[in-house]
Amino acid sequence: MQIGTLIAAFLTLCIFSFLYKDNPFYKFAEHLLVGMSVGYILVIAFNTTVTPKLINPIFQEGKIVYIIPGILGLFMFARFLPKYVWLSRISIALIIGAGAGVAIPATIQAKILAQMQATMIDFATVDGIIIFVAVATTLAYFFFSKEHKGWFGATARVGTWFLMIFFGATFGYTIMSRISLLIGRMQFLLGDFLHVIK
Amino acid sequence: MQRAIPITVCFVFGFFMLLQFFVPHKLSVLAYENVLDWMQIIFVFTLLVGAASYIRLNTKKVVQTQAGWGYNLVALAGLSLMVILGFWKGTGENTPFLWMFNNLQAPMQATMFSLLAFFVASAAYRGFRARSWEATLLLLTATVVMLGRVPLGNLISHWVPDTANWILSVPSMAAKRGLYIGIGLGTISTSLRIILGIERTYLGRR
């Protein structure tokens, strides 16, 4: 048996041991996982962003302007210095401001116009009509400028039914995705590790 | 000044990125792409700050031999190992970094998520009660979708997976679309508030 399989099986069992109760094996695996995940993200972020987007442009391509985001990035470490913590707000402001600017047209296109267009595309079928009614009533439920009474209240109520269907479907789908992960781990333990199943 | 500079930076960059969408000139596009790069670079530094904070916290517990300091040492060892292997031997195929990821990190992550199956099922058992029409609808939909995703559903009747697929692609998708439109409208209004300096919670209290 390969050493990798042995280690993976041990760590899998360590985490499953939490089903009995919190114990030192689980805590060991939990801390190891968090530590390794942080290390993994650091290495990947460095290789995919810092090197190609900061170090190479400055030192190989001579793009001096990239010193600015480098300095703004270093400002983030001012979080550790209470007297200079305001410097980190400049970097945060750039990310948030530029992110907000990018988000507005992107959201109008992807989350509003495209969704509305897809909703009104097919009125010839029953499904098309159901989709239109569901979208309209769901939006009515989230419209709080008018009191949910009378015909509008009834419309909003129908919206809640569709929302319940969405929540139920999402819940069922989430459980099944977790179950498939569980099956995967069981297949690993009983197949690759114990060779009980093929 | 400590608040005025960030608000100005936020306004200038926010307004530029918004305006740029309507100006398809090559200089404008180049500046837009540069700012996107800048955002990514600064974002990586925020990750570094988070990692530095994590290392500081764990080191403090280990140095002061606080309760459970051994686990903090394990966390630091895991972090150091990944960083050292990643920078020393690289991250490509057949590297120790990838071996560590495949044989330690990935199985632990998958197991951790699979644990949720037990907790969600347990929560559902306690929480799912058909007390009202809405709750019954939620319960029925979840049951049909779950049965429709496993071979047992098809064994009962081919209607079960068919209904599950229909639920996912028609009423559920339509409700999600309604939510998306609502989220979109909320995103636009919040973004405008941020750019115009009305929303300032990201600056903190001081």
Description:
The complex is a heterodimer of chains A (198) and B (206). Chain A is mainly alpha-helical and 198 residues long. Chain A has 6 helices and no strands. Chain A has a domain at 120-198. In chain A, helix 3 (67-75) packs across helix 4 (85-119) and helix 5 packs across helix 6 (150-193). The two termini of chain A are 15 Å apart. The model of chain A has no long low-confidence stretch (mean pLDDT 94). Chain B has a domain at 1-89. Chain B is 81% helix and 0% strand. In chain B, helix 1 (4-20) packs across helix 2 and helix 7 (159-169) packs parallel to helix 8 (171-195). At the A-B interface, helix 1, helix 2, helix 3, helix 4 and helix 5 of A face helix 1, helix 2, helix 3, helix 4 and helix 5 of B.
Question: Layout of helices and strands, plus pairs?
Answer:
The complex is a heterodimer of chains A (198) and B (206).
Chain A lengths: L2 H14 L7 H36 L7 H9 L9 H35 L6 H16 L8 H44 L5
Helix pairs in contact in A: 1-2, 1-6, 3-4, 5-6
Chain B lengths: L3 H17 L5 H38 L5 H21 L6 H32 L5 H16 L2 H6 L2 H11 L1 H25 L11
Helix pairs in contact in B: 1-2, 2-3, 3-4, 5-7, 7-8
